[in-house]
Amino acid sequence: MADSGTKTYKAAKRYIYAWGDGKAEGNGTMKDLLGGKGAGLAEMTNAGLPVPPGFTISTEVCNIFYQGKGGIPAAIDREVSEHVKKLERAAGATLGSTENPLLVSVRSGARACRSTPHASGTSRPSSAWWPSSSSPPCCSPPE
C-alpha cells in the first residue's frame, strides 16, 4: 500500500477536566472518570448554572500514582500547575498567598479510589499542591 503522505497522531491522554465561563470539558455521564462531584460540577456548568471555575483531576491519576509506587509523572504535575495558574488568573488571587489567597476546595472520594482507606473523607490543604512523595488529592495511601 502506498504512503499517502499523511501522518496519524495519537491524541494525548487527558487527565484534567476544567470548567468555567459556562463551559465544561466533562459531563454528568463521566462519573467513573471524574467522580460524582466532578461529573456533577461539569453537568451543572453545562446546564448554565453559576458554578465558579475549577478543574477535576481524573481518577486515572490515582491509578497512575499506585502503579508508579507513589509517584506522579512530571507532565501531570505540570498540567495541574497550569490549571492552578488559570484559576489564579480567573480569581485574581494566588494559591498560598497570605495577602490575597486563592481559596479552593480539594475533594477526594473518586469512585476508583474509594477502596483505599480514608479516601472518602480526606481533603488536602490548599496552601500548596501535593508533594511528589505523597498521594494526589483523590487518593489516600493504603495502610
Structure, explained:
By secondary structure, the chain is α+β, with helices and mostly antiparallel strands. The protein has a single domain (16-121), classed as ATP-grasp fold, A domain (Dna Ligase, domain 1, 2-Layer Sandwich). Helix content is 30%, strand content 8%. It contains 3 helices and 3 strands, in the order ββαβαα. Strands 2-1-3 form a 3-stranded antiparallel β-sheet. A hairpin with a 2-residue loop joins β1 (16-20) and β2. The chain is globular, with a radius of gyration of 17 Å. Mean pLDDT is 77; it is low at 114-135 and 138-143.
Number of helices: 3
Computed Rg:
17 Å
* Overall 3D form: globular
Which blocks of ≥5 consecutive residues have pLDDT under 50?
A: 114-135, 138-143
Strand arrangement across the biggest beta sheet? 2-1-3
Main pleated-sheet profile: 3 strands, antiparallel
Our estimate of the beta-strand percent is: 5-15%
The CATH architecture: 2-Layer Sandwich
Number of strands: 3
Distance between the termini: 55 Å
Count of structural domains: 1
* SSE series: EEHEHH
Helix content: 25-40%
Class by SSE composition = alpha+beta
The pLDDT mean sits at: 77
Write the layout of secondary structure elements.
Elements: E1 16-20, E2 23-24, H1 31-46, E3 54-57, H2 59-67, H3 74-91
